[in-house]
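Predict the 3D structure for this chain.
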Amino acid sequence: MVKRLMVFLLLGTMTLLAASSSQKPDCDQLPQQLRETREEIGCGPVHGFYDAPGMIDPPYLYGWLPGNKEETAVFWCYRGEEEDEPYLLVFVEGLGQGRKGRVTATIPWGAEPGGLSLFDIRNAQLLDSQGVKVTDSQHLPLDLFVYIDNPKEHGPKGKTTEYAPLQEYYDGLMTIIYRHEGRWLWLGLD
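Done. Predicted structure below.
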């Protein structure tokens, strides 16, 4: 009787372990510090972020502004299916040395988000608004961009980026995002 009970318990335990190991855990892709910020603004993780084929950069980036890399961060989060733009790109500043940081901007997003990194113009083939190849290895002309809050308005002529813009990228589609004088600009590339 004891042997049967032991066998039953062993088989039951093995069944439970097999069932739990076959379920794919939904891993949260953000570091704890950014998860806390995300939860405070009522946003959730981007489920299935890494399920698409191919290489993809993480859904967060520390150091989107020049300076101490640990003082700024940007990340994706998910607001819900009922939204026209269910994703949110969240910018945080004032991090580091035990500080929690503060959300300084958010950009609503309708398309599936891609991985985040800094844009390196040296690896790009860009043309300015007149079709002339951009060869400056440090800065992008802002008139290539349009404003997020008014897509019919181009960035200012004669001005360039002062630091590396944020790059959102997946599968050949890239969006470059840059803040100039308190307004956000974007440039789509493929």
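The radius of gyration is 22 Å.
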